[in-house]
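Long-time lurker, first post. I've been practising inverse folding by hand and with some scripts of my own, and I keep getting stuck on stretches where the structure tokens seem ambiguous. Below is the full token string for one chain I'm working on. Before anyone asks, I'm not after the true native sequence, just a reasonable design that respects the backbone. If someone could post their per-position residues I'd love to compare against what I wrote down in my notebook.
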């Protein structure tokens, strides 16, 4: 049996995925979580073979969850199922050791097949995205990405500094670096471009 944990913040989608996977004779859904931190706790409790996660979730994103799985060298393999057909997301997912990256509009039977393939040690990646992912490299580092994400949410440099335990000057430097690397005029344009590319 392939033991699967689901991490998805939308209850309807989480329920549908669970029902779909339970139809498979060789797949057992051992738990589910509505946000990234819950998923991390459930991972340690259930020790599933495969984690199926969305990208955008409260707490930890699916990408941050995958990075944590990689950093802690857990045996659990990660498959991302998302609406985001963004090459930047796929690139970051692959760097975090993700075994599968599927879009939510893929045919249902593809998910079970992808889980089997990833469980065997293979990869299951949307082929068109795979080609695009390597054509446009993400110039931002983790801290610039973090600061830009908060700026895009409308936080001031002071608020961001408080959240990240940095000085306001340091926050402004990170924002300035991100704006320069992306070749745009201000933090909002930088945020929009980075979101569009899938770098945030």
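-- Answer (accepted) --
I ran through it position by position. Result:
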């Amino acid at each position: 049996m392939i033991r699967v944990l689901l991490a998805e913040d939308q209850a309807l989608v989480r329920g549908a995925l669970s029902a779909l996977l339970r139809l498979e004779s060789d797949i057992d859904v051992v738990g589910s979580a509505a946000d990234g931190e819950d998923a991390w706790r459930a991972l340690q409790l259930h020790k599933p073979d495969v984690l199926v996660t969305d990208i955008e979730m409260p707490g930890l994103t699916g990408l941050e969850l995958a990075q944590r799985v990689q950093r802690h060298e857990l045996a659990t393999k990660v498959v991302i199922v998302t609406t985001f057909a963004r090459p930047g997301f796929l690139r970051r997912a692959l760097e975090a050791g993700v075994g599968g990256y599927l879009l939510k509009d893929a045919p249902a039977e593809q998910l079970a097949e992808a889980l089997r393939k990833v469980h065997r040690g293979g990869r299951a990646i949307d082929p068109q995205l795979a080609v695009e992912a390597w054509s446009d490299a993400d110039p931002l580092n983790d801290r610039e990405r973090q600061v830009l994400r908060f700026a895009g949410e409308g936080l001031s440099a002071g608020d961001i500094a408080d959240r990240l335990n940095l000085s306001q000057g340091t926050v402004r430097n990170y924002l300035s670096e991100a704006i320069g690397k992306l070749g745009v005029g201000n933090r909002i344009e930088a945020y929009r471009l980075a979101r569009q590319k899938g770098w945030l």
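A couple of notes from the structure itself: The mean pLDDT is 91. The radius of gyration is 18 Å. Happy to go over any region you disagree with.
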